[in-house]
Design brief:
The protein is of the alpha/beta class. About 35% of the residues lie in helices and about 15% in strands. Strands 4-3-2-5-6-7 form a six-stranded parallel β-sheet. The protein is globular, with a radius of gyration of 18 Å.
Length: about 250
């Protein structure tokens, strides 16, 4: 544990990133995106990629997601929720089977189950790591871009798991799409003063220590704090903002 903490401290000193401070949520033009806050990734013992024991980082993320989701629902602000969902005959290498349809792993964690019935929530069951790509149909339609356009969203606030995998991939693809004008009005925001944002306390990743990974064939070590930092660092490098405080303007 001491060596991992030292490695994280070294990483933070060599590739630091500055927090973008607080995000003040305006009364309109903001959308909440929840990434894979499901049993298969967050509920202890729920599956191959779920935490084996209680994990504070994941618990905090779920708590923040539930809190902010309630705020958005109270104000009737739009929410877009991704739920990783797979089929037994369609593996997702290099990962073991996870979030298979019908197992319950693919559903919201108990703290967010109520979102299934919330009228302001759009749920997208995704079949690949990158949520943005999962929204593009074979005919070229894009359900995420349609959602942004419908609600005239200028700010996307992202929470979820894993910071360095699905959250990072979604943020990177969304920012790239914004740069070529595929998700207006987000492009206009880029030009002026707002960009997609990742709430640092609202994201988490999994923990697979080196000593455990060494005894698992084909596994890659994934120390949680180190990879969480890397995910946020990489997201900033792609143009995302990382904020550590959320402030609400009084509702109109």
């Amino acid at each position: 544990m001491g060596s991992e903490a030292a490695a994280v401290d070294l990483l933070r000193s060599q590739i630091p990133y500055q927090s973008d401070g607080e995000l003040v949520l305006p009364p309109r033009g903001v959308g909440l995106v929840l990434v894979d806050i499901s049993n298969g990734f967050c509920t202890v013992g729920a599956g191959n990629l779920a935490p084996a024991s209680p994990n504070k980082q994941i618990e905090k993320m779920v708590e923040e997601a539930a809190r902010l989701a309630k705020v958005f629902c109270e104000r009737n602000w739009p929410i877009f929720a991704f739920l990783d969902t797979h089929y037994e005959d369609k593996p997702e290498p290099p990962f073991p089977p996870h979030c298979i349809e019908g197992t319950g792993e693919e559903n919201f964690v108990p703290a967010l189950e109520w979102l299934d019935e919330a009228p302001n929530v759009t749920i997208k069951r995704k079949h690949c790591i990158d949520g943005y790509i999962s929204c593009i149909d074979k005919n070229g339609s894009d359900v995420f871009a349609d959602w942004v356009r419908k609600y005239q969203i200028k700010t996307v606030l992202v929470l979820g798991i894993c910071t360095d995998i699905c959250v990072l991939d979604f943020a990177s693809s969304t920012l790239a799409a914004r740069n070529i004008g595929r998700v207006p009005p987000l492009q206009d925001v880029v030009i002026y003063f707002l960009r997609s944002k990742i709430y640092s306390e609202g994201c988490a990743t999994y923990d697979l220590p080196v000593e455990v990974a060494m005894n698992m064939k084909g596994a890659l070590a994934h120390p949680q704090d180190l990879m969480h930092h890397m995910g946020l660092y990489m997201a900033k490098g792609r143009g995302a903002k990382v904020v550590d405080r959320i402030v609400l303007q009084p509702s109109e």
